[in-house]
Amino acid sequence: MTGATATRRPNRFETASIVAAAGCSVLAAALDLASAPNTVVFLASGLALLTLAWIVGMSTEQLAESSGPKIGGVLNATFGNAAELIITIFAIRAGQLEVATASITGSILGNTLLVLGASFVVGGLRHGTQTFDRRVAGMNSSMLALAVIGLGLPTAFAAARGTGSDVQTISDVTAAVLLLLYGLSLVYYFRSSSGGHPPTGLPHWSARAAMAALLASTAAVAVISDVFVGTLDAVIADIGISAAFLGLVIVPIVGNIAENIVALKIAYQDRMDFSILVSLGSSLQVALGVAPVLVFVSLLTAHSFDLVFPTIQVIALAAAATITALIAADGESNWLEGAQLVAVYAIVATSFWYL
User: Fold this and answer.
1) Per residue in 51-100, pLDDT tens?
2) Where do the domains of the chain lie?
């Protein structure tokens, strides 16, 4: 087909995924309305969010194919974090500030340690030593370090002076600066980046079908997120799981499952530049975009959200940024380096289990 990419209907797997997401969502909503045990509703809504996040990622990938590589890269990063952003907004509205804070930390740690590490392992075991553009990786690493500084300084001020209106003011200003920096990074990206992976030219959904699936799944995420967050207090008490571990591990996995699988798939295909773009790019968007947005969104709720994080979380973020920069510095990766990143994540997750 000349001058355009052919379109097609969703295949059997895609159709089955959409049906599964719809079924899980209906089941979770029905269990909530029936006042089923909180743990059952928690598990059902979590499964529904997993399937819905997959549909969000799948429809976004289809839109990216028809919108060009640069816009497609931004769409992948933005909607890849949509489910987690919605969950976190509902957590703030419900007063679950510890879960919201931990989910930001967990998303950054999950992408820079677990997802990037697993990508190195998968790609390294199949292809041996893999290479990538160390200039791009270095720029992402330095931006990540800057983001950690931006998230850490309000924490340091609160530790030195205590909480109060000054802390909220510092958080507001820091959030505005981080958002500005994220905007500048997008300008730089559109002006100078090669734009990640080019469209494949293979048949994909029509833009109308992809947008309809994206809007429907995002709306369903908003509904099920309210159900999911509504069970957190009871689940924390019933299971004995800490709010920190819930936010650090479970919420990021539930919200980011689609882009995590994409990062592993393209690493397996030996496309490490794009795999790093997905994992580190998502971390940067959370640190520079999602966290600041939550500060301002919280102004519309009864619970103010600031950028004061527990000290152990800031230390974990700093450690993740440091080891990621060291591993990415030479422009090469292998399965052992991936195992090192995953090992650091396992240590951090274990520590949060006992908080």
Assistant:
1) 888 888 788 777 766 665 556 656 766 776 777 788 889 889 988 888 89
2) 12-353
Max distance between CA atoms of the chain, in angstroms, equals 65
**Contact assessment for residue 334 and residue 120, using Cβ atoms and an 8 Å cutoff:** yes
Kindly report the length of the chain: 355
Give the single-character DSSP code of 288. I
Please list, in sequence order, all residues whose beta carbon lies within 8 angstroms of the beta carbon of residue 26, skipping any fewer than 6 positions away: none
Provide the 3-class DSSP secondary structure of residue 332. strand
pTM for the complete prediction?
0.85
DSSP string, 123-166: HHHHHSSEE--HHHHHHHHHHHHHHHHHHHHHHHHHHHH-SSHH
| Architecture of the domain defined by 12-353 | Up-down Bundle (1.20)
Any idea what DSSP says for residue 305?
A: -
The Cα 20–Cα 26 span in angstroms is 10
**CB-CB contact of 82 with 217 (8 Å):** no
* Residue 347 token pair: 């240590």
Residue type, 75: L
